[in-house]
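Let's sit down with a protein and look at its sequence and fold side by side. Which protein we use is up to you, so please pick one and set it down. Label the sequence line and the structure token line clearly, so we can match residues to local backbone shapes. Go ahead whenever you are ready, and we will take it from there:

***
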Amino acid sequence: MQKRWSLKHNPDINAVQALSTELGIDPVLGTLLLQRGVTNFQDARYFFRPDLRHLHDPFLMMDMEKAITRIEQAITRNEKILIFGDYDVDGTTAVTLVYSFFCKRYTNLEYYIPDRYTEGYGISTQGIDYAKANHFSLIIALDCGIKSIDKVAYANERNIDFIICDHHMPGEELPAAMAVLDPKRPDCNYPYKELSGCGIGFKLIQAYAQKNNIPFEEVTQYLDLVATSIACDIVHISGENRILAAFGLQKINDEPSIGIRVLKELAGKTSHYTIADIVFLIGPRINAAGRIDDAKHAVELLLATDTDLAREKGMLISVKNTERKEHDLNITDEALSMIANDVLAAERKSTVVFNEKWHKGVIGIVASRLTEKYYRPTIVLTRSNGHVAGSARSVVGFDLYEALCGCSDLLLQFGGHKYAAGLTMKPEQVEAFTQRFEEVVSASITEQQLIQEILIDAELQLVQITPKFFRILNQFGPFGPENMSPVFVSRNVTAYGGVNLVGSNHIKMSVYQNSSPLFDCIAFNQGECIEDIRQGKPFDICYTIEENIWREKRSIQLNIKGIRC
């Protein structure tokens, strides 16, 4: 699929020159810093040297004082506390973090993860009934609850208090909980708004430790969990998250918890973890527990203090992950076949596919794959508990949630955000919904939004890629949303030596530009360009610069995102 190349707006040339001179760096690096809001030496020091001392005071968060007071009260009165969390990576890491911290200081508590299929997302009536039947009087909800008005009211009627720790956008009304911790509350002045659900849990235990004179090291020991949640929940890696991610990655690489260490072993990679490695190697294994079986297995693994027990749980999760992959690949193949056999599909601006036998636990992954393939708003539907449940994904710049609002009369419920959402409808509404969704999308999406974009940070001459340049560039990490690995464009490069097709459709080659050194390159899924390149004519590339580690030997490699001959 042809992609459009877009060069980011260049900062003022005088500002670039001044910052580059002040820091003694290449002007291209100065450009990258200014694009990230770094304008002077002090900003650069904060950016390049993340420091845990720069974390915000947790008591700046609205209701934090109330939350800590209620927890202290529960502990003093020996009340039963239930730690409740969602079944995805963010929820399970949050539950592990908060439960681990408090169970070292208090024994009258348990944790609860709702079942994806019988209870669904968020706070459930079944969970509250469990709490009532087992005499819990306080529930700490993590990574969910900000819109659970009716569920919290239901709990209040049963004399069960709630502390909500969420990071999603609130509605017009907040739940009537004892405390609602969410920086996105309009009345919350907490300086950083983009924490993960586990990040909110981290601020909760940080506040408790601060008030009760517990050493900060007893809080930071959970940063591997926080970094895992930041990576897998695709939250911004800026500000406070960047500090948490940097130190969490350090812990994952140097001294992870037993559960994370076992997950690294199962993934077949035990060192040099990046945010991307967490997303693709650790996250799917944690998620597989809840997608295929029970997310409590993931929490048990992450809580493990015995290596043998952790490996036993890890193997169980690994089996579930293999099963998840099989469902994923089979459903993706079936969906692709349905689209290929639909004569009208090519003319549509959206994709909606439905098969009542598809596994609900993987339809979100399939929706992402179809969006990547056809690059248009996509919804995958299947049967669930007598209704039809769906998972939706969007393309850059198109507001999926708004599009679903235009179909709300055909839905039983829906929720999510601009780029991902979940929905439920009656089976008899599938056809009408498919048609309406196409009408809404067609009326509002632009042609440009239907062409995948490669956003380029700066133009670069290959001769500028020196060891010093690469060393400084690496210090821009950890990379992720709002701090993506910089993409460069170099024009009129030439391939040297063999240009080889590897794997199914990847190009491996070396390139140079004018009198530059040779650089090894990998271009994934771009095999269609190989004959043009082999002709020896110059071509343009856009790419990221990365370190290739092969048998402990390190070298600079260009990861090519686009080729223009």
The radius of gyration is 25 Å. The chain has a mean pLDDT of 94. The chain is about 40% helix and 20% strand. The longest helix spans residues 307-340.
